[in-house]
Amino acid sequence: MERSVPFKIWHTSKTIEGQLYVPTINYILMILTIAVVAGFQTGSNITNAYGVTVCSVMVITTVLYMFVLHYAWRKPWYFILPFGIFMIIDLYTLSANVLKVPSGGWVAILIGSGFFILGFCWFFGQLQLRRFLKNHAETTGLNTLPQDLVS
């Protein structure tokens, strides 16, 4: 689907289609985990990053679920509105954890931003490549084909 860098993918089950193992991602996660644990050194130091991460994921999940309800499933506003309560609760917990950003929460934001930038650059590059190939295919006419074959 060209939504990410082409990694080697192992299908670990013949009966379950979605059961995958991606060794590259596994090694990246291992290196990041070791780096974060070595950098924070104690469990009490890592809790600030963990709190910011969990609360950010809660907000992002609620927002995306509300978008899916509205745009993909075409649910009416009165069906979506109760999830606004979850959004308010999630935003309260996230705002309480904003105070933890200077004391370690910035690591989670840095790692998440890094993955977002990599994914966005890949997506934008693929979009530009598709546009170029489409324009190139449209401008290569059949009337110039015999000349290209002769030379």
TrEMBL record:
The keyword Transmembrane applies. It comes from the Eukaryota. One of its GO terms (molecular function) is potassium ion transmembrane transporter activity. One of its GO terms (cellular component) is membrane. The keyword DNA-binding does not apply. This is K+ potassium transporter integral membrane domain-containing protein. Pfam families: K_trans. It comes from Rotaria magnacalcarata. Residues 7-138 form the K+ potassium transporter integral membrane domain. The chain crosses the membrane at residues 20-43, 49-69, 76-94, 106-125. Keywords: Membrane, Transmembrane, Transmembrane helix.
